[in-house]
Amino acid sequence: QVQLVESGGDLVQSGGSLRLTCEGSGFPISDVIMTWHRQAPGKAREWVATLAPGGATFYTDSVKGRFTVSRDDSKNTLYLEMNNLEPEDTAVYYCQNFDSSMWGQGTQVTVSS
């Protein structure tokens, strides 16, 4: 079955850290462009980070220096390491196979002030 499953969302205090996981199945995530997005309550979904097959990474300005996207090819899993979290980071986080436009179901991150 071709799918993406996110996990790792939680309630954390401002300044805390979380690592989100996106487990892929049915295709190798190393062969495609993988992205992280988030959607805060009442707002449109926004792009957060990209990991290209060759390893290049890209981030939206608001998370640069705080978030890191990576993958473990042996586990076919994408990660989003989030540090120094802020209340503005509160959102449902989604991973995406950009090439096929396939989305995961999302995982909730809540940052309290």
Oligomer class: single chain
Helix content: under 10%
Q: What is the averaged pLDDT score?
A: 97
Shape: globular
Low-confidence stretches: none
Number-wise, the strands total 11
Strand content: over 45%
**SSE ordering:** EEEEEEEEEEE
Terminus-to-terminus distance: 40 Å
What's the number of helices? 0
State the secondary-structure class.
Answer: mainly beta
Main sheet characteristics:
7 strands, mixed
Rg, rounded, reads 13 Å
In short:
By secondary structure, this protein is mainly β.
Q: If you had to describe this structure to a student in words, what would you say it looks like?
A:
- The strands form 2 sheets. Strands 2, 4, 5, 6, 9, 10 and 11 form a 7-stranded mixed β-sheet that branches.
- The chain contains no helices and 11 strands.
- The mean pLDDT is 97.
- The chain is mainly β and 113 residues long.
Which helices and strands, and how do they pair?
Elements: E1 3-7, E2 11-13, E3 18-25, E4 34-39, E5 46-51, E6 57-59, E7 67-72, E8 77-82, E9 91-97, E10 102-103, E11 107-112
Parallel strand pairs: 2-11
Antiparallel strand pairs: 1-3, 3-8, 4-5, 4-9, 5-6, 7-8, 9-10, 9-11
Structural features:
mainly beta, 0% helix, four-stranded antiparallel beta sheet, seven-stranded mixed beta sheet, 113 residues
